Input
Amino acid sequence: MFELKSGNSEYNTQTLSEIVKNNFKAAAVFEKYNLDFCCKGNKFLSKACEEKGINEIEILSELERIKTYQNSSINYEEWNLDFLIDYIVNTYHSYVRKMIPVILEHINKVASVHGKNHPELTEIARIYSVVYKDLKQHMMKEEEILFPYIKYLVKTKGNGSKSESPYFGTVRNPISMMELEHQSAGDELFEIRNLSNNYTVPQDACNTFRVTFQELKEFEEDLHKHVHLENSILFPKSIMLEEELKS
Ligand SMILES: [Fe+2]
Output
């Protein structure tokens, strides 16, 4: 098995700033350890760790983890719905909750520094704060109303009993509302994509500017996967399950 050693890392020859340029997710790791990858990012990782008294191996293992984050060979179609719900909440909802305040802070910072030359940044910051509010409420409704009902349906089927009608009539009602909310979040992020000219950073952009656009891009891509799992797999299967239990 590969053993992490500070001396044999691919990061030995890269500065903090270069590591973030090659993989913007490293920004979150460096921020966690208070390592400056922006204005004073022209330092090698080992030197920066030594100065701050940080264990370099710890950082290297975090950098390895972000490299192997995604696994595209998973077949979600085969998963039980209760397991799929837990996966959505633990992966996608927790990503949104973790990243939304980080990105909002970055975009507000970039807008206050560069807003004069790039007025679209102020509009992006405004739209993103709307996305923040909308998604927080949206996920809460899913976690407190829709998902518990779908889990109840799964359990009822497992017990071989008959399901009772929920106060909202049928699962189709909250699902219709959630689909509309997915659409508006998608539209808002699409507007940000347009305003940022497909997340294109200007030549003179600082690292925080670059990181913010990369974070926004990843946020949008992540939301697409998240919404795909709900709209295309979880929701239609829940409607079918409810129908099956009624008959
Ligand atoms: Fe959702």
Notes: The chain has a mean pLDDT of 88. The first helix runs from residue 16 to 22. The chain is about 70% helix and 0% strand.
